[in-house]
Protein backbone atom coordinates (compact mmCIF):
# COMPACT_ATOMS: atom_id res chain seq x y z
CA UNK A 1 0.00 0.00 0.00
CA UNK A 2 2.80 2.43 0.89
CA UNK A 3 4.55 1.82 -2.44
CA UNK A 4 1.30 2.47 -4.31
CA UNK A 5 0.83 5.71 -2.40
CA UNK A 6 4.37 6.77 -3.27
CA UNK A 7 3.67 6.05 -6.97
CA UNK A 8 0.37 7.96 -6.79
CA UNK A 9 2.00 11.03 -5.21
CA UNK A 10 4.82 11.04 -7.77
CA UNK A 11 2.33 10.68 -10.63
CA UNK A 12 0.19 13.51 -9.22
CA UNK A 13 3.22 15.78 -8.99
CA UNK A 14 4.60 14.86 -12.43
CA UNK A 15 1.29 14.63 -14.30
CA UNK A 16 2.77 11.90 -16.45
CA UNK A 17 3.07 8.13 -16.31
CA UNK A 18 6.26 8.32 -18.38
CA UNK A 19 8.00 10.77 -16.02
CA UNK A 20 6.81 8.85 -12.98
CA UNK A 21 8.25 5.63 -14.41
CA UNK A 22 11.61 7.34 -15.06
CA UNK A 23 11.84 8.81 -11.54
CA UNK A 24 10.92 5.55 -9.81
CA UNK A 25 12.90 3.31 -12.20
CA UNK A 26 9.78 1.37 -13.20
CA UNK A 27 8.06 0.52 -16.45
CA UNK A 28 5.11 2.64 -17.57
CA UNK A 29 2.93 -0.47 -17.42
CA UNK A 30 3.90 -1.10 -13.78
CA UNK A 31 3.13 2.48 -12.79
CA UNK A 32 -0.25 2.36 -14.53
CA UNK A 33 -1.11 -1.00 -12.93
CA UNK A 34 -0.16 0.15 -9.41
CA UNK A 35 -2.21 3.35 -9.72
CA UNK A 36 -5.19 1.29 -10.88
CA UNK A 37 -4.72 -1.07 -7.89
CA UNK A 38 -4.84 1.92 -5.53
CA UNK A 39 -8.00 3.27 -7.20
CA UNK A 40 -9.70 -0.11 -6.83
CA UNK A 41 -8.67 -0.35 -3.17
CA UNK A 42 -10.07 3.12 -2.47
CA UNK A 43 -13.15 2.72 -4.68
CA UNK A 44 -12.60 6.06 -6.44
CA UNK A 45 -10.98 7.34 -9.62
CA UNK A 46 -7.89 9.40 -8.79
CA UNK A 47 -6.83 10.60 -12.26
CA UNK A 48 -8.31 11.80 -15.52
CA UNK A 49 -6.21 10.10 -18.20
CA UNK A 50 -5.76 11.92 -21.53
CA UNK A 51 -3.25 11.94 -24.33
CA UNK A 52 -1.67 15.00 -22.71
CA UNK A 53 -1.07 13.19 -19.41
CA UNK A 54 -2.67 12.88 -15.99
CA UNK A 55 -4.78 15.33 -14.03
CA UNK A 56 -6.23 14.73 -10.60
CA UNK A 57 -9.94 14.20 -10.14
CA UNK A 58 -11.62 16.03 -7.26
CA UNK A 59 -11.30 12.84 -5.18
CA UNK A 60 -7.69 12.45 -6.26
CA UNK A 61 -6.90 16.03 -5.36
CA UNK A 62 -8.45 15.61 -1.89
CA UNK A 63 -6.61 12.35 -1.34
CA UNK A 64 -3.31 13.90 -2.44
CA UNK A 65 -3.69 16.80 0.03
CA UNK A 66 -4.41 14.38 2.87
CA UNK A 67 -1.55 11.95 2.36
CA UNK A 68 1.27 13.68 0.43
CA UNK A 69 3.00 15.30 3.38
CA UNK A 70 2.63 12.22 5.56
CA UNK A 71 4.04 9.86 2.94
CA UNK A 72 6.91 12.20 2.04
CA UNK A 73 7.72 12.58 5.74
CA UNK A 74 7.64 8.80 6.16
CA UNK A 75 9.94 8.36 3.16
CA UNK A 76 12.42 10.78 4.70
CA UNK A 77 12.27 8.90 7.99
CA UNK A 78 12.88 5.62 6.17
CA UNK A 79 15.85 7.15 4.36
CA UNK A 80 17.25 8.39 7.68
CA UNK A 81 16.66 5.00 9.30
CA UNK A 82 18.36 3.23 6.41
CA UNK A 83 21.37 5.54 6.74
CA UNK A 84 21.49 4.91 10.50
CA UNK A 85 21.31 1.13 10.06
CA UNK A 86 23.85 0.95 7.25
CA UNK A 87 26.35 3.54 8.47
CA UNK A 88 29.36 2.02 10.24
CA UNK A 89 29.76 5.21 12.26
CA UNK A 90 27.45 5.58 15.22
CA UNK A 91 26.39 4.08 18.55
CA UNK A 92 26.14 0.40 19.44
CA UNK A 93 24.43 -0.75 22.64
CA UNK A 94 25.75 -4.14 23.80
CA UNK A 95 24.67 -6.26 26.78
CA UNK A 96 26.98 -8.99 28.10
CA UNK A 97 26.94 -11.22 31.23
CA UNK A 98 29.39 -9.77 33.74
CA UNK A 99 31.31 -13.05 34.14
CA UNK A 100 32.08 -13.04 30.40
CA UNK A 101 32.28 -9.35 29.60
CA UNK A 102 34.73 -8.54 32.38
CA UNK A 103 37.77 -10.80 32.20
CA UNK A 104 37.34 -13.28 29.31
CA UNK A 105 36.45 -10.53 26.81
CA UNK A 106 38.96 -7.91 28.01
CA UNK A 107 41.16 -8.44 24.95
CA UNK A 108 38.15 -8.48 22.62
CA UNK A 109 37.03 -5.00 23.69
CA UNK A 110 40.49 -3.68 22.87
CA UNK A 111 40.53 -5.42 19.49
CA UNK A 112 37.07 -4.21 18.52
CA UNK A 113 37.52 -0.59 19.61
CA UNK A 114 40.87 -0.41 17.80
CA UNK A 115 39.44 -1.92 14.60
CA UNK A 116 36.27 0.20 14.63
CA UNK A 117 37.06 3.51 16.38
CA UNK A 118 34.07 5.12 14.63
CA UNK A 119 31.65 2.91 16.60
CA UNK A 120 30.66 4.36 19.98
CA UNK A 121 30.23 1.36 22.29
CA UNK A 122 27.77 1.39 25.18
CA UNK A 123 28.45 -1.80 27.16
CA UNK A 124 26.13 -2.98 29.92
CA UNK A 125 27.28 -5.87 32.11
CA UNK A 126 24.43 -7.80 33.71
CA UNK A 127 24.21 -10.64 36.21
CA UNK A 128 22.52 -13.99 35.66
CA UNK A 129 19.14 -12.83 36.99
CA UNK A 130 18.74 -9.78 34.77
CA UNK A 131 16.85 -9.79 31.48
CA UNK A 132 19.11 -9.05 28.52
CA UNK A 133 16.35 -6.93 26.97
CA UNK A 134 15.94 -4.72 30.04
CA UNK A 135 18.76 -2.51 28.72
CA UNK A 136 17.23 -2.31 25.20
CA UNK A 137 20.44 -3.37 23.44
CA UNK A 138 21.12 -3.47 19.72
CA UNK A 139 22.72 -6.88 20.30
CA UNK A 140 23.35 -8.99 23.40
CA UNK A 141 25.57 -11.92 24.37
CA UNK A 142 23.75 -14.52 26.45
CA UNK A 143 24.74 -17.53 28.50
CA UNK A 144 22.32 -20.45 28.75
CA UNK A 145 19.09 -21.16 26.90
CA UNK A 146 16.92 -18.11 26.21
CA UNK A 147 13.18 -18.80 26.40
CA UNK A 148 12.11 -15.40 25.02
CA UNK A 149 10.37 -16.10 21.69
CA UNK A 150 10.66 -12.44 20.65
CA UNK A 151 14.42 -12.79 20.22
CA UNK A 152 16.46 -13.94 17.24
CA UNK A 153 19.13 -16.27 18.63
CA UNK A 154 22.46 -16.91 16.94
CA UNK A 155 24.17 -19.80 18.76
CA UNK A 156 27.95 -19.41 18.82
CA UNK A 157 29.15 -22.33 20.94
CA UNK A 158 29.59 -23.52 24.52
CA UNK A 159 31.61 -22.79 27.62
CA UNK A 160 32.19 -25.76 29.93
CA UNK A 161 32.42 -25.36 33.73
CA UNK A 162 35.21 -27.25 35.52
CA UNK A 163 36.24 -27.85 39.13
CA UNK A 164 39.09 -25.74 40.49
CA UNK A 165 40.92 -25.20 43.77
CA UNK A 166 43.79 -23.10 45.09
CA UNK A 167 47.41 -24.37 45.09
CA UNK A 168 47.39 -24.71 48.88
CA UNK A 169 44.89 -27.57 48.56
CA UNK A 170 47.15 -29.67 46.35
CA UNK A 171 47.58 -32.38 48.98
CA UNK A 172 43.89 -32.56 49.81
CA UNK A 173 42.25 -32.92 46.41
CA UNK A 174 39.51 -35.50 45.76
CA UNK A 175 40.23 -38.46 43.51
CA UNK A 176 36.56 -39.21 42.80
CA UNK A 177 33.40 -37.04 42.57
CA UNK A 178 32.00 -38.88 45.59
CA UNK A 179 34.71 -37.36 47.80
CA UNK A 180 33.40 -33.85 47.10
CA UNK A 181 30.70 -34.54 49.68
CA UNK A 182 33.29 -34.32 52.45
CA UNK A 183 35.31 -31.36 51.11
CA UNK A 184 34.65 -27.61 51.35
CA UNK A 185 32.91 -26.39 48.19
CA UNK A 186 31.91 -23.01 46.77
CA UNK A 187 28.60 -22.57 44.88
CA UNK A 188 26.90 -19.69 43.07
CA UNK A 189 23.67 -18.67 41.33
CA UNK A 190 24.24 -20.65 38.15
CA UNK A 191 26.14 -23.62 39.56
CA UNK A 192 24.24 -24.44 42.74
CA UNK A 193 23.31 -28.00 41.82
CA UNK A 194 26.40 -29.81 40.64
CA UNK A 195 25.79 -32.47 38.00
CA UNK A 196 29.15 -33.70 36.77
CA UNK A 197 29.77 -35.67 33.58
CA UNK A 198 32.68 -37.95 32.83
CA UNK A 199 34.63 -37.05 29.70
CA UNK A 200 35.22 -40.68 28.68
CA UNK A 201 32.08 -42.71 29.35
CA UNK A 202 29.62 -39.77 29.71
CA UNK A 203 28.40 -41.14 33.06
CA UNK A 204 26.97 -38.54 35.42
CA UNK A 205 27.21 -37.92 39.13
CA UNK A 206 25.07 -35.53 41.19
CA UNK A 207 26.95 -33.92 44.06
CA UNK A 208 24.30 -33.88 46.79
CA UNK A 209 25.42 -31.66 49.64
CA UNK A 210 25.07 -28.30 51.31
CA UNK A 211 27.92 -26.21 49.94
CA UNK A 212 30.30 -24.62 52.42
CA UNK A 213 30.29 -21.20 50.73
CA UNK A 214 27.85 -19.45 48.43
CA UNK A 215 28.37 -16.33 46.33
CA UNK A 216 26.30 -14.74 43.56
CA UNK A 217 29.41 -13.30 41.87
CA UNK A 218 31.72 -15.71 40.05
CA UNK A 219 34.78 -13.49 40.38
CA UNK A 220 34.41 -13.64 44.16
CA UNK A 221 33.99 -17.43 44.00
CA UNK A 222 37.16 -17.52 41.91
CA UNK A 223 39.07 -15.55 44.54
CA UNK A 224 37.74 -17.78 47.33
CA UNK A 225 38.94 -20.87 45.47
CA UNK A 226 42.30 -19.24 44.76
CA UNK A 227 42.67 -18.51 48.48
CA UNK A 228 42.05 -22.15 49.39
CA UNK A 229 38.51 -21.76 50.78
CA UNK A 230 37.24 -24.77 48.84
CA UNK A 231 36.58 -26.29 45.44
CA UNK A 232 34.49 -24.27 42.99
CA UNK A 233 32.67 -25.17 39.78
CA UNK A 234 33.38 -22.29 37.41
CA UNK A 235 33.29 -21.69 33.63
CA UNK A 236 36.50 -22.44 31.76
CA UNK A 237 36.42 -18.89 30.39
CA UNK A 238 36.90 -17.50 33.88
CA UNK A 239 39.58 -19.89 35.18
CA UNK A 240 41.69 -20.84 32.16
CA UNK A 241 44.29 -18.08 32.54
CA UNK A 242 44.55 -18.58 36.31
CA UNK A 243 45.24 -22.30 35.76
CA UNK A 244 47.91 -21.45 33.18
CA UNK A 245 49.57 -19.10 35.69
CA UNK A 246 49.49 -21.75 38.42
CA UNK A 247 47.06 -19.74 40.56
CA UNK A 248 44.42 -22.48 40.38
CA UNK A 249 44.48 -26.27 40.10
CA UNK A 250 42.18 -28.21 37.77
CA UNK A 251 40.39 -30.69 40.04
CA UNK A 252 39.08 -34.02 38.70
CA UNK A 253 40.01 -33.15 35.09
CA UNK A 254 38.04 -36.15 33.79
CA UNK A 255 34.83 -34.56 35.06
CA UNK A 256 33.04 -31.33 34.14
CA UNK A 257 29.73 -29.55 34.64
CA UNK A 258 27.00 -29.09 31.98
CA UNK A 259 28.15 -26.90 29.09
CA UNK A 260 26.59 -23.44 28.90
CA UNK A 261 25.32 -22.37 25.48
CA UNK A 262 26.58 -18.97 24.35
CA UNK A 263 24.44 -16.98 21.90
CA UNK A 264 24.07 -13.56 20.38
CA UNK A 265 20.48 -12.30 20.44
CA UNK A 266 18.52 -9.31 19.18
CA UNK A 267 14.77 -8.51 18.93
CA UNK A 268 12.79 -9.90 16.00
CA UNK A 269 11.33 -6.49 15.25
CA UNK A 270 14.71 -4.77 15.23
CA UNK A 271 16.72 -4.64 12.00
CA UNK A 272 20.30 -5.54 12.83
CA UNK A 273 22.61 -2.65 11.91
CA UNK A 274 25.91 -2.91 10.07
CA UNK A 275 27.57 -1.97 13.39
CA UNK A 276 25.98 -4.97 15.10
CA UNK A 277 26.97 -7.18 12.16
CA UNK A 278 30.67 -6.27 12.40
CA UNK A 279 30.45 -6.74 16.17
CA UNK A 280 29.07 -10.24 15.63
CA UNK A 281 31.75 -11.12 13.05
CA UNK A 282 34.62 -9.79 15.20
CA UNK A 283 33.32 -11.58 18.30
CA UNK A 284 32.93 -14.91 16.48
CA UNK A 285 36.49 -14.63 15.12
CA UNK A 286 37.78 -13.85 18.61
CA UNK A 287 35.92 -16.71 20.31
CA UNK A 288 37.09 -19.20 17.69
CA UNK A 289 40.68 -18.58 18.85
CA UNK A 290 40.01 -19.00 22.58
CA UNK A 291 41.03 -22.31 24.24
CA UNK A 292 38.17 -21.97 26.72
CA UNK A 293 35.47 -21.75 24.03
CA UNK A 294 33.92 -24.62 22.04
CA UNK A 295 32.65 -23.22 18.75
CA UNK A 296 29.62 -24.77 17.10
UniProtKB/TrEMBL annotation:
PROSITE patterns: HTH_LYSR. GO terms for biological process: DNA-templated transcription. InterPro entries: LysR-type_TF_proteobact-type (IPR058163), LysR_HTH_N (IPR000847), LysR_subst-bd (IPR005119), WH-like_DNA-bd_sf (IPR036388), WH_DNA-bd_sf (IPR036390). Keywords: DNA-binding, Transcription, Transcription regulation. Pfam families: HTH_1 (PF00126), LysR_substrate (PF03466). Residues 1-57 form the HTH lysR-type domain. It comes from the Bacteria. GO terms for molecular function: DNA-binding transcription factor activity; sequence-specific DNA binding. Belongs to the LysR transcriptional regulatory family. PANTHER family: HTH-TYPE TRANSCRIPTIONAL REGULATOR, TRANSCRIPTIONAL REGULATOR-RELATED. This is LysR family transcriptional regulator.
Amino acid sequence: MLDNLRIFITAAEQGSLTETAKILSMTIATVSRRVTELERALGVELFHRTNKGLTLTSSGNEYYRECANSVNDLNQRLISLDASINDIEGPLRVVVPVNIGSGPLNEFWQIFSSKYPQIALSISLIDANESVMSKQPDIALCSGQQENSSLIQNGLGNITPILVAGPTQKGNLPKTPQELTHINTIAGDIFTDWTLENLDDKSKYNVLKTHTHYCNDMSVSLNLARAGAGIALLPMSLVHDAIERGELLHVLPDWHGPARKISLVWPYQKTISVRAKVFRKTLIDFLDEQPWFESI
